[in-house]
Amino acid sequence: MQDLKGVVVDKQFITEEIFKLKVYLSEKILAFIDPGSFAMLKVEAKGVYLRRPFSFADLDIKTGMVTFYVKVVGRGTKALGEINPGQEISMLLPLGRGFTRRPGKSLLIAGGIGVAPLNFLAKRIIEDGGKVSFLYGVRNARQFIAEIYSKFKKEMEVYCEEPGLGNRGSVRDGLLTKEIMAYDQIYLCGPMGMLKAVKPILKDFPGLIEVSLESYMACGFGACLGCAVQLKNKDGIIYKKVCQDGPVFNFKDVVL
Amino acid sequence: MSLMVNIGELTLKNPVMPASGTFGFGLEFKDFFDLKKLGALVVKTITKNPRLGNVPPRVFELSSGLINSIGLANPGWEYFREKILPQIKALHEVLILNIAGESVEEFVFLANEAQKFEEIKALELNVSCPNVKKGGMAFGTDLEALKQIVSAVRKIYRKPIIVKLTPNVTDITIFAKASENAGADALTLINTFTGMVIDVKNKKPLLGNFYGGVSGPAIRPMAIKMVYDCFKAVSIPIIGVGGIDSLDAALEFIMAGATAVQVGSQNLVDPGFLPRLVEQLELYVKDSALGNISELTGIVHRGGEG
After folding, report:
1. A65 lies in which domain range?
2. Which residue among A218, A221, A229 sits closest to B28, beta carbon to beta carbon?
3. pTM of the prediction?
4. 3-class DSSP state of A151
5. Prediction ipTM score
6. Whole-angstrom Cα distance, residue B251 to residue B260?
7. Do A205 and A182 share a structural domain?
8. Where on this chain does [2Fe-2S] cluster bind (chain A) (predicted)?
9. CATH number reported for the structural domain that contains residue A82 in this entry
10. Per CATH, is B5-53+72-192+217-301 categorized as 3.20.20.70?
């Protein structure tokens, strides 16, 4: 975990509400970044006090480049969208516990901007020799990251709630068409509504199911306890820190 | 030229320390810097029994700070003693244990326990957390309860006692004086202000606990005034806290009457801030040709300079 300055190499709005941010980082830190881990980015703008957490969406060790996909949802992400190539950005990284990668066939279920960390995970699974099937659900075209789809065309099925893009419907509809027992493990990242909707379908799945969670977060490294999430274990309900114990958790333990 | 200050019988090499609750147990920061650079290490509040803390969401950003309702989540004294204390005692030679209780007896229990450990150099009594239903701020806004807690702890605890007061009272100087009279060696001023934020889209409170504590630069002018007022009212040292995010902000507290300062919210956004503040204070004292930083304590009460 370090507080580093990265240099913004590229920033492009790829839809009306999502931009891609490519940042050049010191080589040494790159080896410690895993799919599911994240960075806290400092946004230098009036009225933005806290850093913002973003999962790594990609990493290129050769060029020293990390990629984030950022959805503009509030004043922090709006201000971050105004950053220009050449500018420095202060980043705490790498933070959190990432996905557990295992061999075999993996089913990846993404909702909206949740596709970002799963993009990185899919890349690593394939590099490891594993196979992926990717379900990617979006509400509308403004949430759809075409460049991720183009990378995983063969493995990916897109579901869109509005007509005109992929299959009509939600990720849940897509999941119902899958023979889930054919997979060795399942990974999810998406909004709470999606997680709640798919939970009953996955309840009898015997293998590993991991989910990357989002939370309001102040520090990102375990000092404030602000990002607590409820999990259940043998003792009942417990709290864990999304930033440090997660953001990746066993899906079966998460109280939704 | 020196940054050395005294808080009761404690001698600190500099007046800079973290505010409890914003620094974990210190372990979270050891990758960022050597904690020995600080004047003291103040750890997160410990209670007798473990506390889960409040229902999420627990934090929300404000334009110049944040609001939180953590609810004193902590693993409890036994776990702290067994698992955490052995890890953190090497981090700093001056470890200040912040404690809270749901009753006078719980404060006394914790003080008694803390006394058994040489590495714990002082207690900070948290009578001011706004986010718990039992104890917490209720003790810090009830003069009689405050006196009882401080007196009871004083009777059995031989090392310095620091009382961390809440700003959520009409006149904080009354509580400051009462703490001093009951045997406190120092005061920490102030804890967070109670506040509330509403999720307009969903038409409900944004924090799971409805209310929270407001911290950060937004509260600094109020905190400075409280330090200023209490400096006149008491003769024990004051540790100033509330929105310190720069050298000047720390100097404001010192000039208003603080002997030392604590940094809270800024640790969360800039984990390397504390050691930089120490360096900046060193340079400032050197450049100002001061013998000791404490020469500035309360200087505005003496009409300042120039």
Report:
1. 2-95
2. A221
3. 0.94
4. helix
5. 0.92
6. 10
7. yes
8. 219, 224, 227, 243
9. 2.40.30.10
10. yes
